[in-house]
Design brief:
With about 500 residues, the protein is an alpha/beta fold. The chain has a domain of about 100 residues: ANL, C-terminal domain (GMP Synthetase, Chain A, domain 3, 2-Layer Sandwich). The protein is built from 17 helices and 26 strands. The strands form 7 sheets. The chain has a 5-stranded mixed sheet. Helix 1 packs across helix 10 and helix 12 packs parallel to helix 13. The protein is globular. The mean pLDDT is about 90.
Length: about 500
């Protein structure tokens, strides 16, 4: 089923039930009102250009309605990241995807210091232009029987693009990922088959919707089931998020480990008493984070794994099947293959190899980039660029990006493995990122960036108890704030550049 058609059916089924609670603006919309509002937005967008429409809005009722309205109008949303250089990313998206119009807000531009660019239209102006006749027409239209109402909105087929999203660009220039209605719908079905979900969930939507993790889990998953979505645009306001969780009696939270650390530190016992499911992804979840959440809130963090190109979820742990440290079992409609990074042969159980994925949730391809699509896809299998292994029970263990492996003395060393061990050896509150820098003798050496000065001798002694000599960091540098992307992930490429400059400048 087309995603916007699913929303129409859900809205008609749940009517007066709360659909969106926007904690930043105080806006509260029932499913009936959300349907009317999205139809109003669609009517306005149908009057503009056809094809792609850029959306640059924070996680909010407005952003959700913009996505819904865009699809109902027969256009494809292109989600733009405003956290890593809004002006640059707008221009890049317009050029890459050959479109002009970007729906944004004056309030956002003011907050982030972005100039008004050619092609920008403002959500405030769109809503202010609505007449009493527009509103009455949309309200009457929303009351039509479901089958008749669906005939009045854009149709299409499951293989039409539902969204264009940009890869993080943590290692290279961003690529525009085309996800279809079939892709995202398959991912939602796989998640729903694995997790015990119902319309009674109250879902915290604090992740940016310009990332696939946020778009699928914070927007489409709740709408798929008729849940209530509570939005807040800044996941880094840790105390505010904790207050929202307590006050709105949130039951379902997803986030990155960086965000979860913040919520853990700023929360009081009892703040998360209503929470039933807490999923983490995007980065490795440290054992210490899991342990401290258990001790403070009696909650189990369930780790998952995915990427933009797979809509995103590939695997995750569920309450009934959880193996801490792993990223869980693959979704029932996702196939995973582990392949030797040099020979291409299938890996044995427990053997580390490249992670390849096949299934209906795998992207249609990279927009206007046949070469990149061909390199990433082989006979329906998507090469994630990640390394991992599966155990005898089918749990997937992610051990890092292939590019986060370094060959030293002929041996492959996982920087992620070094990083995980280092985290356990550092004092509380000290973050880290492990990178490789060129070495004239050994080809490469490992350097650890830490956020505060440490006793290097003491830390190295602890590391030596768990790591072979070849994997030991040969140097430490202090970077008080490690560069991050909007998703909360550490910007590995930028961190590597900073470390190399610091080391070479000594």
């Amino acid at each position: 089923m087309l995603l916007h058609h699913r929303f129409v059916r859900t809205a008609k089924a749940f009517g007066g039930k709360p659909a969106i609670i926007d904690r930043a603006t105080g806006t509260r919309l029932s499913y009936e009102r959300a349907l009317i509002a999205s139809l109003l937005v669609a009517d306005k967008l149908e009057q503009g250009d056809e094809g792609f429409l850029g959306i640059m809005l924070p996680s909010s009722a407005g952003c959700i309605l913009a996505v819904l309205g865009t699809l109902l109008a027969g256009r494809t949303p292109v989600m733009i990241n405003y956290s890593t250089g809004a002006e640059q990313n707008c221009r890049y998206a317009q050029k890459k995807c050959a479109f002009t119009t970007i729906l944004t807000s004056k309030a956002l531009l003011t907050k982030i210091g972005c100039p008004v660019l050619p092609g920008m239209i403002f959500l405030e102006d769109v809503m202010a232009s609505l007449t009493a006749f527009d509103k009455a027409k949309a309200a009457l239209r929303a009351k039509l029987p479901t089958a008749l109402l669906l005939r009045t909105v854009h149709g299409g087929n499951l293989d039409d693009s539902a969204v264009l999203l940009f890869t993080s660009g943590s290692e290279r220039d961003p690529k525009a990922v085309q996800l279809t209605h079939r892709n995202i719908g398959a991912n939602l079905a796989g998640i729903s088959e694995t997790l015990p979900l119902s319309a009674s969930e109250i879902f915290l939507a604090n992740l940016p919707l310009f990332h696939v993790f946020g778009l699928t889990t914070n927007l489409w998953l709740p709408l798929y089931h008729g849940m209530t979505i509570v939005t807040y645009p800044n996941p880094l306001e840790f105390k505010t998020i904790c207050d929202i969780i307590r006050e709105e009696k949130i039951t379902f939270v997803v986030g990155t480990p960086i965000f979860m650390w913040g919520y853990l530190r700023k929360s009081e016992r009892g703040d998360f008493a209503s929470c039933r499911i807490m999923l983490t992804g995007a980065d490795k979840t440290p054992d210490t984070l899991r342990q401290e959440f258990r001790e403070k809130h009696d909650l189990e963090l369930l780790e998952g794994y995915g990427c933009t190109e797979t809509s995103p979820v590939i695997a995750f742990n569920s309450p009934s099947a959880n193996r801490p440290g792993s990223v869980g079992r693959p979704l029932p409609n996702v196939r995973v293959r582990l392949e030797h990074y040099e020979t291409g042969e299938p890996c044995a159980v427990g053997e580390i190899g490249k992670i390849l994925v096949q299934g209906e949730s795998v992207m249609a391809g990279y927009f206007d980039d046949f070469e990149a699509t061909t390199l990433a896809m082989r006979q329906g299998w998507y090469d994630t660029g990640d390394m991992g292994y599966q155990d005898a029970d089918g749990y997937l263990w992610h051990v890092g990006r292939l590019r986060r492996f370094v060959k030293i003395g002929g041996e492959m060393v996982s920087l992620i493995r070094v990083e995980n061990v280092l985290e356990q050896c550092l004092p509380d509150g000290v973050g880290c990122c492990v990178v490789e820098v060129p070495d004239g003798v050994r080809g490469a050496r490992i350097v650890a960036a830490v956020t505060r000065p440490i006793d290097q001798k003491a830390v190295s002694a602890l590391l030596a108890e768990q790591l072979p000599n070849i994997a030991m960091p040969r140097d430490f540098v202090v970077i008080e704030e490690l560069p991050t992307m909007g998703s909360g992930k550490i910007d590995f490429r930028r961190t590597t550049e900073l470390v190399r400059d610091m080391v070479q400048g000594r």
